[in-house]
């Protein structure tokens, strides 16, 4: 599934973080309650429903219409979303090799070693 509008707003990101961390699909009320626990005052249920609707339209969440109240879950993992972000940024770069060189040059040595291991295992 192609996800539209890869970048997320602040509330969209907070909601996706909850869905990614959830072991099971969540209702809008559960999302709102957890947001309220994490922040001084959580958004109104109508706001949560609006954002969940936008995330569903963008392809980030699946909405189970068969259940009442509706349940929502992430369509991809957090890691897959990060890969999509990286691919989107890299795909828009004029000089991909320069971007990759700067990225690799700026990462922690242990991460660079892991990248080398992953590339070696891919080539085998």
UniProtKB/TrEMBL annotation:
<comment type="similarity">
    <text>Belongs to the BlaI transcriptional regulatory family.</text>
</comment>
<keyword id="KW-0805">Transcription regulation</keyword>
<dbReference type="GO" id="GO:0003677">
    <property type="term" value="F:DNA binding"/>
</dbReference>
<dbReference type="Pfam" id="PF03965">
    <property type="entry name" value="Penicillinase_R"/>
</dbReference>
<dbReference type="InterPro" id="IPR036388">
    <property type="entry name" value="WH-like_DNA-bd_sf"/>
</dbReference>
<dbReference type="InterPro" id="IPR036390">
    <property type="entry name" value="WH_DNA-bd_sf"/>
</dbReference>
<keyword id="KW-0238">DNA-binding</keyword>
<keyword id="KW-0804">Transcription</keyword>
<dbReference type="GO" id="GO:0045892">
    <property type="term" value="P:negative regulation of DNA-templated transcription"/>
</dbReference>
<protein>
    <submittedName>
        <fullName>Transcriptional regulator</fullName>
    </submittedName>
</protein>
<dbReference type="InterPro" id="IPR005650">
    <property type="entry name" value="BlaI_family"/>
</dbReference>
